[in-house]
Amino acid sequence: MEAMKQFVKILLAIAVVTGGSVEAFGQSFGIELQNTVMPASGGMGGASIARPQDLTSAINANPASLTQFQGTQFLFGGGWVEPTITMDQQGNIPAMGTPLVSPFQGKSTAPGTPLGNIGVTQDFRELGMPVTLGIGFVTTAGGFVDYRNIPESNGTNSEMTIFNLPIMLGVDVTDKLSVGAGMSLGIAFFDAPFVGAGGMTTDYALRGTLGANYDLNACNTLGLYYQTEQSFQFDNGLLINPGPGQTAYDVRMDLPQNVGFGFANTALMGGDLLLAVDVTYKMWDEAAMFDAMYNNQWVVQIGGQYSLGKYRLRAGYTWAENPIDNSPGGTVGGVPLADLRSVRYTQGLLAVTSQHRISGGIGIVDVLPGVDFDLMAGGMLKDSEQLGDFTTTSIQSYWLAAGITWRFGRGACCQRIPAPDSWSSF
């Protein structure tokens, strides 16, 4: 019986940590944001593989599209995500013996979460090199979950945050073909105060990206990119019964491999209407920790932008396949779990199940000479999920983001957004 209790404690510690990312980013795919809160692309549902409308989207996804940004550009962006997550737990955990978690129903009281996305691009055409460098700081995942106001939850709460520092390079191979590659250094902060010793555990991990863009003609562009896994290992991430005789566990967590394909078109309305579609395949089955909870996932992002003088009007829709695995595994992050009821409880804290998201935004070119402003808002429609016989979750959210882009030097613009170097009327 003591062994069973220890396994359940391990389970719950992992559950509250991984659940933290869901509370913060309720619009995510699994736990990844995938450009949905970028200041311009976010207003288009995150569609940005072939012709991104802000430089941080290029840095964070397809590096080949960096060549569309000329001169020197700097973007400072931020956002706010406000999810509403509820859980209805109808059975004791564990199923046998003294329960560590009793039946409860309630809403997580964790607050919304701010996030930042910052980037700079520099092209080297003046030096005779068809190369563009992009460097950024990107919020990838993270946040809080908190059911401590419900005694029956036995204090379920935690925090996790992941940032990435990508360095990407795009090269124009021909007038129509560009390629790109780069590496991201990720840092993850992991805190599991529910059991054991409280304290932050950190780890660093690398993630590689390859991409390509091809202009079929003046109006149609294809884009493709691949991202490797980003593998974190939190040494002594869990301490059970701290003190003499304590048990320490290393916890593994991977962000998944991603393969994305994008198409963009500007043939309509005299070139003033940009239509973009991205399709991404996320390989959760091969990602540590999430392989026990998720299936591989398809994501479709559709967006449009209409140019009206110096204004850019944007709208987007996203469909994301429900990733929840109906046959969850018994090991999470390399740590063995207890009974199926406990596994379903963990899965419920990770259940970003809604398939439908909408967004809209506006951009203003040259609000000051060489300065652009972008604003977007989005929402994820409410969805409920029954997990086994005893756990039900519900999730919905909204988010806001804005960004300012400074362009330095003549020609500093995105090829798709005319942006003069001095005041003018459109």
From TrEMBL:
GO terms for molecular function: long-chain fatty acid transporting porin activity. GO terms for cellular component: cell outer membrane. InterPro entries: OMPP1/FadL/TodX. It is a multi-pass membrane protein. It is found in: Cell outer membrane. Keywords: Cell outer membrane, Membrane, Signal, Transmembrane, Transmembrane beta strand. Its main location: membrane. Coiled coil: none annotated. Belongs to the OmpP1/FadL family. PANTHER family: OUTER MEMBRANE PROTEIN NMB0088-RELATED. This is Aromatic hydrocarbon degradation protein.
